[in-house]
Amino acid sequence: MNETYILIAAHEPAHADVLHIAAATGHEVVETTDPLEIRRHYRRAFAVLIDAECAECVADQPRRPRVFVVAPDPGPPDYQRALALHAEAACTVPSMSYDIVEALSATPARPSATGEVIGMLGACGGAGSSTLACALALSSSSPSLLVDAVPFSGGLDLLLGAEEQEGKRWADVHVEGHVPAAELRAALPHVADTAILTCDRGGVAPAPSVEDIVAIIECHRSDSSGALTVVDLPAWGDTARQLVGALDRVYLVVPAEVRAVAAGTAISRAVRTELGVVVRYRQWSGLSAHEVENLVKLPVVAEIPHVRGLAKTVETRGMRTVPRQLKAVAERLEGFRRG
């Protein structure tokens, strides 16, 4: 974790005591009991002080350090919830307040990171989320890392025509302790200023775990230069559900077609994270962006027109440069990032 604030997600009567604990550490505080906000800050905060009720909304999140499940005296605290979150401790407050302060004071916080992590999620197979992920990473105005989180995807290096580039793939990468983001990027294959972390087609290594992917995300997020991480997410399911909590923003790519919109609508109801919709038009698309927005019940933030010849380009030589139409979409999303 790279942010220096403490997330407090607790109801009264524990809330006041937890607030005093955070104040004693000298850290800034973010207070919320809103599930969306809790999930947004859960991965980023230096530490989390959370009650059992609020902890329900992060039960599917990857393990992280410095989580304390709190309950008001006389207790008992919810040990089951603490075990499920792999919490550092389950504590009653105020009787155990000193123990929490001591534990938090023993670990200095790193300076706040400036890197951002964006995920691309397809509403259905062939939606174009992988292509848009590549376009956003290649078009970034800052150093970027493209993370292939799709098991047995065939490799984003193939999509970019970089399969012959030397560098480590998922089977070769092990993040332990603090690894500088620039060092991570240098070890990976590149297209221009974009580093690519994807699978190795020549081996039998298992797909990366959620913990592996999150470790890479956190490593690159720590880059003080404002580096961008773009994650190509797998189809909606347990892995994607866990990963979205580690991201700053997620875009759902929805083809303007009836079945794709139906799938996107189902995903929008299941995702407990704010989403922006990117509508993709194909030659046979029959819906408008307005119709997609009304059906999915999420804001459309960008539209991808049909890019003539792109499929053949990807098949024959890879997308080494971003087509004008895709670049315009990527720049629009980059503008949201800067804003």
TrEMBL record:
UniProt keyword annotations, A-Z: ATP-binding, Helicase, Hydrolase, Nucleotide-binding
InterPro entries named in the record: P-loop_NTPase, Rv3660c, Rv3660c_N
Entry keyword Transmembrane: no
Keyword check for Hydrolase: yes
Domain Rv3660c-like CheY-like N-terminal: start-end pairs: 14-111
Membrane-spanning parts: none
Pfam families: Rv3660c_N
A GO MF term: helicase activity
Annotated protein name in UniProt: Helicase/secretion neighborhood CpaE-like protein
UniProt organism field: Corynebacterium pyruviciproducens
Organism placement in taxonomy: Bacteria, Bacillati, Actinomycetota, Actinomycetes, Mycobacteriales
